[in-house]
Every structure is written in structure tokens, then in C-alpha cells.
Write a structure and sequence with these properties.
alpha+beta, Arc Repressor Mutant, subunit A, Nucleotidyltransferase, domain 5, 4 domains, five-stranded mixed beta sheet, two-stranded antiparallel sheet, about 20% strand
Length: about 325
């Protein structure tokens, strides 16, 4: 006979719209067993609820619920409990305590594993405003995470343009001491001009940068958010654990905190999916990353302009002469720094 928790799981999945065959495949059960459990839903029998034992977190229930309402993660709640109350134990105790307050996850995805040095994923995440030279400026966090080890690099930025995007890549590769074979990117304008499902059009400068560093840029398929699930999870983790409910005097203080947090927390934690420490797994991955290029990358900005009747184009409030045969033609404008 199936245990009670397995029967409950079957009934819950059925109520969420999964059919008997799907449930049987998901749980590794015989379809007849699933059918019998679902059929028994209407037999009038009710389970006798178990009496819950006292938890060490009962005295902190209001504190924990308040943190949950602010959207803090279990790991962050545990860290704050240790800081404010000096509790013993691990974050798994907090996870068990708040589980009944969390709605069940609806979607089920297969976790795809990468080989060491094979892939990195990158993305931006908005983190609010920071004091920059006495003025409040919008700020983002750039994140690159190595898919095998989950070792990550993060950098605060004030924009998401091509130059910033590329400089963040360079800083990340230097942080890792090497370059992965593939960099999976979201369809940001800094890298992808046209996010076609089959043939995305790459931004010229970013494509040249990828060639210089020897990696293959791989845009995510449109309407397929799971393509970059590792970095999206990393963005959420950084926003929740590093920045949420923290106040910084200025951007310099935030950058210093982030740098220390990466070394002492993010890359030293036991990762929720791999159940391994990213810093330890990175020791294997670092050995197979491609080497950094010996020459610096020459940054260039590209745009388009139409040549006027006077054989000029306008670019950044300046006029430039163009040969007469290009009048009324659209030309590429490349600015080299």
C-alpha cells in the first residue's frame, strides 16, 4: 500500500490538471495504482491529522512570517535569525518550518547538466537605486554563472549598453581566469539586434568580441525562459540575498559588500540544485576553461545612418563627409575607441 504522502501527491497532481498517465510517469508508478488512488478520493475516508511537535522556531514565528512577506528567501531568513537571535542549527530547519506557508510549485522541468568549461549564462537584474556622486541612479546587477560549477561573477552597472555589457564579460573572464566554450545570453539589445527564433541577428561589436575571446554566443530562444534557468535563478538569489532589505551609503559601499559577499557567501554556499559548493566545483572547471587572449579587445560602437544630399551623415550631433556615390544610401557607422 502506498504511503499517505504519496497518495496526497497523486491527488494534488490530479487536481492540478495532470492525467493518470502523466502522474504515473512523473512518480514512477503503475497507472492502475494511480487510478485506484484517484478513485478513492470520494470514499468518504479522511486521514487523521498528526499532532505537530513543537519547533525551535515557534518563538520566532512572527519574525519569520514578516520576513516571508518581504519576499526574503529561506537562506536569507536563516542568516538573519542567526544574526539577530543567535539560533543554532541549519537553514533546513527554517525550510521545514515555513514549508506549510509556501504554495506548491506548479511547473516541473528537467535539470540539464553541463560539462566543465562548456557553458556560462549571463543576464542583468534591476536592483533599485544607488547613491552615485550624491545623486540617486538606477542600478542593475550583471551576472555570469558557469553552468557546471555554478560559480558566479557579479558586477553593479548603471546601464545595459554594449560597452558595459562587454566590459562586464571581460571582468568576468578575468575573475574566472579563463573563457567557457559557449556564453548563453538573453535577447538583450546589447548583444542581439533581432531575436528571431531560428536565426537571431547578433550585434556587430558583441560578435567581434566573442570571436576575439574565442567563445560562441548563443542567444536564448524567444518565449523559452528555461533556456537560461541557471542565471535567472542566480539573479534572483543575488537580488534576494545580497541586496534586498539592505541599505548602502553609496555605490562604492555596495560594490565592496558585493565583492565580499561573492567570496564568503555566494560561491561558498551549498548550491540548492547541485548540493555542492560552487567554489570547490570551480577548481575542476577552471582547469578546462580556454585561456584569456594575449591582446586587448578594441572596442567599437556601430550604428547606421543615411547619407544626405550634401554627402554628409549625422552621428552624435556631428557631421561627417561621405563619398558622393553613397547619397541616399544607408551606411554602417563604426566608432573605434
Amino acid at each position: 500500500m502506498l504511503e499517505v504522502h504519496m497518495q496526497t501527491t497523486i491527488k494534488t497532481l490530479f487536481e492540478q490538471g495532470y492525467n493518470k498517465s502523466q502522474i504515473a510517469r512523473m512518480l514512477g508508478l503503475d497507472r492502475k495504482t494511480v487510478r485506484n488512488v484517484i478513485k478513492s478520493r470520494g470514499n468518504g475516508c479522511e486521514e487523521v491529522p498528526r499532532k505537530e511537535s513543537a519547533s525551535q522556531f515557534d518563538p520566532y514565528e512572527d519574525y519569520i512570517l514578516a520576513k516571508m512577506e518581504k519576499g526574503l528567501t529561506i537562506k536569507r531568513i536563516y542568516q538573519d535569525l542567526v544574526r539577530d537571535y543567535g539560533i543554532a542549527g541549519t537553514d533546513s530547519g527554517v525550510r521545514h518550518y515555513v514549508q506549510k506557508h509556501r504554495p506548491p510549485k506548479q511547473d516541473v522541468f528537467m535539470v540539464l547538466h553541463s560539462l566543465p568549461g562548456e557553458e556560462a549564462q549571463v543576464d542583468f537584474g534591476f536592483i533599485g537605486t544607488l547613491n552615485v556622486g550624491g545623486k540617486a541612479r538606477k542600478a542593475w546587477i550583471f551576472i555570469m554563472v558557469l553552468s557546471y560549477s555554478r560559480y558566479m561573477f557579479a558586477k553593479i552597472t548603471l546601464d545595459q549598453n554594449v560597452k558595459t555589457f562587454i566590459m562586464c564579460h571581460i571582468n568576468a573572464f578575468q575573475y574566472f581566469g579563463g573563457v567557457p566554450k559557449v556564453v548563453k545570453i538573453d535577447n538583450l539589445k546589447a548583444a542581439v539586434i533581432e531575436a528571431d527564433f531560428y536565426e537571431p541577428l547578433m550585434q556587430r561589436t558583441y560578435a567581434e568580441f566573442a570571436k576575439h575571446y574565442g567563445f560562441l554566443p548563443e542567444p536564448c530562444r524567444v518565449y523559452t525562459p528555461t533556456d537560461k534557468g541557471k542565471v535567472e535563478a542566480a539573479v534572483k538569489y543575488v537580488k534576494d540575498n545580497c541586496f534586498k532589505e539592505r541599505n548602502f551609503a553609496d555605490i562604492e559601499e555596495a560594490e565592496k559588500f558585493l565583492e565580499n559577499w561573492l567570496e564568503t557567501t555566494a560561491n561558498k554556499r551549498v548550491h540548492g540544485t547541485t548540493q555542492k559548493m560552487p567554489a570547490a566545483e570551480f577548481q575542476k572547471e577552471a582547469k578546462v576553461l580556454s585561456g584569456l587572449p594575449t591582446a586587448d579587445f578594441t572596442m567599437s560602437a556601430s550604428d547606421t545612418a543615411v547619407v544626405g544630399a550634401q554627402c554628409h551623415i549625422s552621428y552624435r550631433a556631428n557631421y561627417y563627409s561621405v563619398p558622393y556615390q553613397y547619397i541616399n544610401c544607408k551606411v554602417d557607422v563604426i566608432e573605434v575607441n
